[in-house]
Amino acid sequence: YFDSLRICLSTGGCPFVHEVRKDEDICSPILRKLFNESHHIFVGLQGIRDDLPSKNKKTQFVSISKNYRSVIRACMEELQQVAGKVEGKSDGRISPVFFLQVSILLAVELIWNLCEVLFIDAAPAGSLLLHLLDWVRLHKADVDEKARDVLQSESPTEHQAYWDVVGVNTLTLTEFDVKWRHWHEEVDRCLQDQSFASNPHLEVICKILVGDEDVLLEHKELLSTWYHFLVTRLLFSHPIVKPTELHYYAQSSMHMFLDTRSVPEPLDSILLAAFEFDIHQVIKDCSIALNNWWFVAHLTDLMDHCKLLQSHNLHFGSNLREFLLLEYASGLFTHHSLWQLAVDYFDHCPEFGRVYLELQIERVPLDTERKALKVLRICEQRQMTEQVRSICKIMAKGALRNNRLGSALSWSIRAKDAAFATLISERFLQDYCANGAFSDLDLIDNLGSAMLLSDRLTFLGKYREFHRLYGEKCFSDAAKLLLSLMTAKIAPRTFWMTLLTDALPLLEQKEVIFSADQTHELMFCLEDLTSGNCLPKPDRWFPFLFQDEDIDTTKIEILRLALARNLAKAIVKEGTVEV
Amino acid sequence: MEGINAKYVSQKISKTRWRPVSSSSLQQPDIFATGSWDNEDNKISLWSIGDNGVSGMDDEFEGDPQLVCEYKHNGDVMDLQFLDQDRIVTASSTGAVTIFRHNHNNQTLSVPQLWERAHHYPCGKAPCTGVVCNSPEIVTVGEDGRIILFRSDQEGVTRTIENADSSTIHAVTFLRTTEILTVNSIGQLKLWDFRQRSNEPSQILSLTGDRVPLHCVDRHPNQQHIVATGGQDGMLCIWDVRQGKMPFSLMEAHSAEMWEVHFHPSNPDHLFSCSEDGSLLHWETSSNSDTPSFLQGGRNASITSRSAIAPAGGNQSLISAWLTGDSGKGRLETTHMLPSQTLSVNSLDVLGQCLVCGTDGEAIYVNRLVPI
């Protein structure tokens, strides 16, 4: 799956994509950090309250945007570090995929940074150029060094003027504009006067400072990209460029810089769309260029929070932000480990998130109980009762197959699954009838309130209690309990014969245990059981109870006799009055 | 909480444990081990938090944990314990129990011993869920309801208690050298005495009422009859195993499963718990009586309000139903130790002033200035 989780830029005819699998081991642990860290930021972002004043919110959004970018940078740096280590080894050969990965992250950060400057921070005229300068500087640090060296190599006064321009935030716009124009005119005059004619380098620098485009273009290799050219051009000709004018300069810069023959790369069109403030185009182009949803999902979500996206619904009902988040999260869900992150993303998709989660969560493989518990907790927290039942049933069935009756019961309790609890109780009773003794006494003796989950379970617990009382020689309590099991209809009819048989030793005691009334009730139960139309049909659980009719009749006879004798003794005992 | 940062490690952490420091030295621990889970290739890793010799008055320590070495682990690491300074025992979801040895010279790990199908079903694998050791003895428990006793110096199994439990045993700890405590998924705390030949527990304790599964257990380091457990409902229970079948006190701690609970080994008035709800709590008790307020009994109202941002030491007094005279003035403080809401905190360990924990967000947090 990591093929698609990997961020790939589909430049024209990229042959590397097919070799991806081999280098997964190097890239994927580092990329995983990206997914985890950005998930953390995402969840924090969703928690920002709507009622904050917009000024505070903007600062927070910018800070979150910077967080995202720092995560991307950290990832890039680590990839480069690892590449360095591989290179250092004697047989180290870094595959092209590695470099591709780094360059993609670079591109992603470049785009994100520009979006932050233009859309999220929404710098107004004046500080806009400053931000753009920072932006270019951040991504072309080495080139800028060279350019600065060239500029610094000559007279310091020019140098001074250069920094004055940069110090625009100390003045108001109009003040600055006046000062700047004045300075610009002065430099222009110097050029006209040929004051620097003696020194060709100085003259070139002067021309640059005036914003002479031809001269700038002559130094193309220093600038290396059209957007560096754009910013430099703006710096020296239109320092207080307004956001709305940007697109004009961007387009013309791009055309001037690139050869007319070369086709703009995807990155170029994306940046141009950004300069044109066409957010939707940026997102669309990024989605096409990168076959991974990570970048567009997070960026769109952030911009949605900044209320920058027009909420036009897509064909199938959800908006752009939700669509991208759903795509991203669905991809995450197929990863054997990162599926847990996806849950939070689905949570924040109000239209379809829940449905997607319901479908996906049942497909998570449950290798251990601990994992099943985590999945269950996710379902329970979101009141997904159907999924809870289904997961518990799978676990309970598995436990039952392995003869772990206690575990099976524990899962039934969690799902409040009375039917399965009944099934488990039947298993216990089967074992009892087969072996003559209860297995897993630690469970049955300590059922607690779980007993109430199913009638059969209640019966099991009470029946065991009867055995215990009998064992402890609390005969009258045992007798009372036994009777109540039948009269309160707790015991299944199929088990009544066994219960009545259990009563035999109590009836045969020298001491009278069952009172006359109780004996009457027992007799009633026996008649009830044996009367023609009420004979219980052979039960599939207890088929052996009705195998031999002769034994049955004999047993019934014995019971009747015992009951009669007990009744006699009881009447006598109760009738006797102490004188 | 200042000074506690996340280190992202690209694997979900199921267990973290400090390497023990010799009791004679007053050093702080510097090496910890982690185990991962839910990966196609799981690992155990050893990390170092650097030289603690250089400590200024500054609160801030640099020192991201650095990876020392790692080793592939077959199956999820369900539990992990240091057997001694060099060896680690792990419990695996495949049912295997493995001993790893750390070679200090070349900083590698090797596997000197492995019991591959220690826990199993008649047909199929049964995860081994817990391991505890008291060198050279090792005790493991699993989903198959078995308790197995090993010795690290012997090849085979020393003793197996078959069908010790009809439900899954989630955790085990030593009560005394020959007695262990287990907790299971039907909410029972069982005491087993290895000196007895029978395969029955010598004592069973449980909460009446709901059979809430218990996930973790820890014994008070000094007073061996005091035991803490945590379970599916996030409640912290304190038990006195000498008396009664019921817990001594219950406290609402977390809003989801409590995965681990630990008394601080040298300062047991402090307790730590971590949970599926993404929080790690530090419980601190102080009272003018000798008995910690844990033992003053009764069911207590909710201790702390839930919030994603750490409150600076939630100060709630214990409302105990059984206050008796002047010994009932116990006070319990609870603090969140993590800076913000995270995914489940699966494991924690505390030693000296150092705390380490691991989360499902694939992050490790280390705090070297735990206020003890």
Automatic annotation (TrEMBL), chain A:
It is found in: Nucleus, Nuclear pore complex. Its main location: nucleus. Transmembrane segments: none annotated. Keywords: Membrane, mRNA transport, Nuclear pore complex, Nucleus, Protein transport, Translocation, Transport. One of its GO terms (molecular function) is structural constituent of nuclear pore. InterPro entries: Nucleoporin_Nup85 (IPR011502). GO terms for cellular component: nuclear membrane; nuclear pore outer ring. GO terms for biological process: mRNA export from nucleus; positive regulation of DNA-templated transcription; protein import into nucleus. Functions as a component of the nuclear pore complex (NPC). Component of the nuclear pore complex (NPC). Belongs to the nucleoporin Nup85 family. This is Nuclear pore complex protein Nup85. The gene is NUP85.
Automatic annotation (TrEMBL), chain B:
It holds the Pfam family WD40. It is found in: Nucleus. WD repeats lie at residues 207-249, 251-293. Its main location: nucleus. Signal peptide: none annotated. One of its GO terms (cellular component) is nuclear pore outer ring. PROSITE patterns: WD_REPEATS_1, WD_REPEATS_2. This is Nucleoporin Nup43. It comes from Esox lucius. The gene is NUP43.
